[in-house]
Amino acid sequence: MARTTDAGAAKRLERLLSEDWISADRDHSRVFAYADDQATAEELRKDLLRSLSNEGLDQTLIEEPSLRRWDESRHRYVDPSQPDRDPDTGQPWDYPGIDPADARWIVRVRPMSSFSHNELRGQLRVIDRPLIVDDGAVFGLGALDEDEANTLASRIGSFYGAGEIITRRLGWWERWRLRWRLGGNYADGGGG
Questions:
Q1: Assigned architecture for domain 100-183
Q2: Hey, which bits of the chain come out as E strands?
């Protein structure tokens, strides 16, 4: 993954890769190139840096291109050297500032498009609140009360890719299901 200074630079980089028959796509200012294994990905990264330099695009990179691999358990790309951390923020994947079971309110955020989904997820991970919904179409962050939910909604409104934002109180059934999901089914513990 290569992060560029702007969407125009990312578009030029994507075109450069496709001219070399490399499978690639872009999401705003990020370009993703795909390889079958880590050795090929390492070689691709070296070729990419060389090509960028030759084309005068090396100054558009914000940071050196990073390697990522698909993690089936998390349903997202991770840094192979630190799979337990978000590669965009460096934070642990599950670092809630509150216990998810204590959430009484939810801030639901719908990405503006499927192309902004991953970028928005990375920005939401920086917030010190549990991501209690991530179903591919909408995100939901837990909040302790209405004031906190409204504060979170205001902050999230400035994030790139954030679309519709709704805050609402969680009903008792939703809170029970959340605790059930976090703690496991009663049948799993032999309690019922």
A1: 2-Layer Sandwich (3.30)
A2: 2-3, 24-27, 30-33, 69-71, 76-78, 105-111, 131-134, 139-143, 162-169
